[in-house]
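Changelog entry: the Acetyl-coenzyme A synthetase record was regenerated in this release. Current contents:
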Amino acid sequence: MLPPARTYAALRAAFRWEIPDRLNMAEQVCDGWANREPERLAILDLSEDRPERVSYARLHALSLRVEDVLRRKGVAEGDRVGVLLSQSALCAAAHVAAWRMGAISVPLFKLFREDALRARLEDSGAQVVVTDTEGSGMLAPFGVAPVTRADLPEEGRGADAAQTGPETPAVLIYTSGTTGKPKGALHGHRVLTGHLPGVEMSHDFLGQAGDMLWTPADWAWIGGLFDVLMPGLALGVSVVAVREAKFSPKILARVAKAGARNVFLPPTALRMMKAEGASVRGLRSVASGGEPLGAEMLAWGRAAFDVTINEFYGQTECNMVASSCSALFDVRPGHIGRAAPGFDVGVIDADGQETHGEGDIAIRRGAGSMMLEYWNDPAATAAKFRGDWLVTGDRGAIEDGFIRFVGREDDVITSGGYRIGPAEIEDCLMTHPGVATVGVVGKPDPLRTEIVKAYVVPKPGASVTPEELQDWVKARLAAHSYPREVALVEDLPMTVTGKVIRKELKRQATAETEGGRA
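Regenerated structure tokens:
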């Protein structure tokens, strides 16, 4: 845990990374607590009519049962194990089992459809996926071995834990980019330790007596998995699990009544609450990340929660690198906090030199939560770095130590807290027999930050409708990434080499929004 400190400067000065040569996340989040305090509450599952209390001992036993099945399926060190589950004890146990074996877990989103799942399963090479009955049906076309709760033995003995270290690959998380298929960010066992300083800051020193965590973010994404679930388990802070199709303020009220008092709410969830005039009391901390909040939203948050919302910043490749912390310093609207202890966050120019003006937000090598590499993609890995810095792709400036976010340098769409790559949606639409050309961009939206908008040129003589194309993407990718607007057009702005000029489409989409407001 972070050292006690009364000022941000004192906190950074006192902090030192403590990463041992032997490190396994299964020990951090489960096995160690199961030995020391077996009856301590790990997960409170509110998804059913009757709440289920899962102690660390029960989580440990469940993970051993999963491990037994994985070993019988032939999983060995370095093999990839998919986890296609929503928030649940089995989801946590599947990751723990894979890590204890020295395997690599691959979180998969239950809203993915066939094309999205195929891309990740084929790229990762995962042959076994821990899932549920619904997930087994989703996996049928891929020839992988599903493992459900029904497959688990009554007891699991497990085996000796693998001798892993901080750089041993442990988890492969796919991130959407602007070109090509989603890239897999490969992380070592140090990734959890690397998240802890920022997570603790974002919740005003998480780990105090009575703390309990919850987020509506799915545990298939780094925001749910490593901003909430695994840090909570590692710190001995109970985590609430809820499986709901959509967020609503009533869900937050329910989990708060059950004891949750530390929540991570994506900006879209906050906007939904603001639009409904909802408020919740009894929370000790509210964290948010994914896109910047403005002064108006921060002011509303103080009134709605009686606490200051702490914004944090990071990405799948290197997460939780900066955060606000109202317990240490006043939050500055328009900024995303200050560098977390142990992280050197800078703004650099095209030559990789730090600049005092606006530039590329970057993180210096050596950060605990920094990925090892992009899976099977050395060229993309090399392109992600500029000298000694990992480049985020975001533009910003640092003012009095506070990081001001300016905008995204790439075309990634931020919608409802998700980062959505336009290339994957364009590729999907291009498989429709009636589509000739397509360009996908984010269109500004007051609730979701952006919505996905597709500009489609139909093939000559083809009869297609926007609704048909929306359903095409929904059925193949994911329910959260389909284009909420489809415009059928005669042509698209192109470069001389035939590439769609997304910036032109982006300007057009923005003008449509502004015109509508006018």
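The first helix runs from residue 8 to 14.
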